[in-house]
Each structure stands twice: as C-alpha cells, then as structure tokens.
Amino acid sequence: MAPQVFDTVGVYSFLVDETLLAPIDGTVMDAEPFGSQRLGTNQQSIIILIAITGNIDKKGGNIIPSHLSGYVSDPELVGATSKWRPSEKIERERIGYEKYPLASGPDSPLPFVNSNLALRTMISGEPYPLKAVYCVGGNPVVNCQNTELAVEAFKELDLFVVADLFMTPTAVQADYVLPATTWLEREGCCDISYSNMIAARRKALEQQYESWPDMKIAIELVKKFHGQIEVSYLGTVLRSLIIGE
Known about the structure:
Structural class: alpha/beta
GO molecular function: 4 iron, 4 sulfur cluster binding; metal ion binding; oxidoreductase activity
Shape: extended
Helix content: 25-40%
Number of strands: 5
Protein name: Molybdopterin oxidoreductase domain-containing protein
Largest sheet: 3 strands, parallel
Strand content: 5-15%
Radius of gyration: 23 Å
InterPro entries: Mopterin_OxRdtase (IPR006656), Mopterin_OxRdtase_prok_CS (IPR006655), Prok_Mopterin_Oxidored (IPR050612)
Organism: candidate division MSBL1 archaeon SCGC-AAA259I09
Keywords: 4Fe-4S, Iron, Iron-sulfur, Metal-binding, Molybdenum, Oxidoreductase, Signal
Oligomer: single chain
C-alpha cells in the first residue's frame, strides 16, 4: 500500500493492508448499521472482498440467508416465490410486461410496474384503461422523475385513494385519504430477510382515531371485490380472513 495513504485519509498503510487480509481466514463478520457505509459502491466492494477471499456462506463470513421452516416472509408475500403469485396469464397482463419482462413479467423475482409506464397508461388508456389507483405508503408525486406527468395522470383517474400517515403532495391529489396506523399502533411479526429469526412486535398504544393497519384495509377491500378478482393464490390464512375458507 502506498505510503501517502496516511496523508490522504489519516490511516496508516499497514492497517489498511491488515484489514484487507483479515477476511482470508474467515473470521470477519460484517455487521453494518444504517449510514454512509450502506452506499451501493461501498456495499459492492465489501461483497467483492468476501467473494474473492472465499468466505461466502462460511462461518464468520457472508452467510446465505434462510428462514425458519414454515415461516412466510414479507418478500414472499409480495411475489418472491410463485406460490403466492397470481396465474401466469394475469402476470402477462401487467403493464410493462412486454417492454420490461424481467421486471414486470412472470419470471421477475419481485415483479413491479414501471412508474412512468403506469402514469402514461392512466393518460392514454393503453394497453388498457387504468381508471382507479390505490396508493399505500408511497408519494409518487415527489418520488417519480416527472412530477408534472404524475399530477396530470392522477387527474385522469376516476378514483384515486391514498393511505398514508401524512397529507403528502400525493395525498392532496387523492379523492379519498385513508389514515393508516404507524408501527407503534399495531402488533405483528418482524422478519429480517438475511436472518433466520422472527421477532414479535407489540404495539405501544392503541390505534388513533379512525386509522387502520394497511393489511386490514387491504383485506376489507378484497372482501368488497370478492367474486370479481382471483384469490386462489392467496394463502390459507388470508383466504380464511377474506372469504371464510
């Protein structure tokens, strides 16, 4: 390591050398809080270092994540496995499937609709009319690259409903705003995608005013649409909550 390292970053070069060599024996554990070290380029450097030293899925190295048997994680519920996803026919009708099949089609690990395509569909009606949107915990008027396009698109909807904690710029555009509960007002299971543990979360206070948890809002909406949408892919627990099976 070049001797000018200390002059540049204030760290002795031999310490840098020792740090780079340390993972070789598989005794280093990478535990990171939220901060600047979570930047993508830094993360890539750490992962590359773990890989070239042969410490992937080794004790003290980078362990491949796993879950307790029978537990369904949040990523699985939103489509990480085919077990919890709708039929391939429905997935091929998702907006953006033809243009971005790996992001929006049946083969996508976590399918989603490209936001710009969705906004343009609201305006043009192509490939089919999109007249109602239910937005949960999102703020597309701010987050989308084209704010003017988002505002124009939402004005074309027949129904725009937003569930959020605050009156965001997106919520201002909505026909109805549903008050959602915070994590402090609801109990649940917390899972960490890279760990094999489950933690129970206990609410700190009762639901405030007329707020509901996101899942309760979704379940009640599906109940209203029962018979008009496909629910065969839902798990036993959700089916029992929605249609009593």
